[in-house]
Amino acid sequence: MEFERVWTAANWERLLVGDLLNQGVLGGLLLTLLLGGAAIVFSTVLGAIVGTMRSASWRTISIISAVYVQTFRNVPLLILVFWAYFFPSVFGLQLSKFASVLVALTLFTSAYIAEIVSGGIRSVGRGQIEAGRALGLSPFEVRLWIVLPQAFFNMLPALAGRYVVAIKNTSLAFLIGLADLTEIGKQIGARLMTAPIEVYLTLLMIYFVVNRCLSMLLRALEDRHRFNRVFMRI
Amino acid sequence: MHLDWAILWGNPGLLILQGLLVTLQLSAWTLLLAFLIGLLVGVVRWLGFRVAEPFCWLYVEVARNTPPVVQILFWYFSASYLMPGWLFIGLRDVGYEFGAAVVALAIYHGAFIAEVVRAGLNSVPGSQFDAARALGLRFRQSLLRILAPQAVRIALPPFVNEATSIVKNTSLAMAIGVTELTYQYKHIDSFLFRGVEALAAVTVIYLMLCLVIAGLGHLLSKRLSKHVARRDPPLALTSE
User: Of all helices (H) and strands (E), which one includes residue B26?
Assistant: First the structure.
């Protein structure tokens, strides 16, 4: 093992921020985190909307939600990336590589999050909804203020798992030529030629540390009393 | 934009069918190997052997927290360093992309299946095992005849999810040049300039494969839990 060949200052710089400091484009871990973070935020919002639609009383809406989930969940993410890169050109638009990976990753992840949200909503007791209605809240208010906050804590472990998968899935970006962490690692591997084990172990290590930190962070939120104390000042 | 769907009956269609065959083979081998790994690691973790536990934990955590495509690249590019020379020279000429993809994906999904197996076994109350042992069943009998049938019912839905996930993740094998469905789409797009038609066809094939697997799994799990009382129907938020 010759890790010192891989772990030079120049290589670390490229792995972490790409060519950002040399008047080049942003890349490496920073790009991976930007892509993953944006996808996580967008897909959580979209997933919450689609997941809530699943339990709507209007049948058409719940069917639309089910079709959305089944379609985007049962197609490989890579295929969605190609669609996103490609489909807008039918209308004369062209998404950038970053945007197309982001769109695909958001659609893919939101389908899973919608399932988690609709399951979380179902896990909240019927009595809670009836009590909220009896107190004069509208169905929408019941959903927003009674059901979702309680469902949130039931959903957290599953959401944490999905977020980790989203970060892992950003690694597909290199297949359409985005300079993310995997692509930079591949380039370093190609230049060194004789140290693939060291290069890819380094990559695996970086992803491992990032994902473990993320899941540990989310696990800390699972204690709802501490959450209320810190964020809600209760 | 001019679309010519008829080309799918010609040469591109044949390429896609070849790709489908490779995807199916890749999925089947991966599923088999991942299931074996998952069963072994899951049972060992459930038993809680002091010696094996840290290794199993490390394996599951590392495999689950790293991207499958990086794992595929790792096994593919380090193959020549990890294998004995004579084996590598033998494999080099026939190509080992397929094998590398199977190994990488099986290791990745094996970790998830190990967790599914462990969760399934943990969902059966421990007293069931103790009762079986007290009634004089051997260790293997009580595991296979008492615990396994109860655990399978719990573990089947997540296992089916893993199976569809394997089919989807075989598309990553194009990164190292395995000629499966997604690779064939790229090929048709690059050399025959029929990207949209090929992409639509490939998307439909993946969608159908995954839906069929999910549907079969659903039927099977309904059959397995026929004797169990039905859960409450899903809650509807009505605005009466």
Answer: helix B11-47
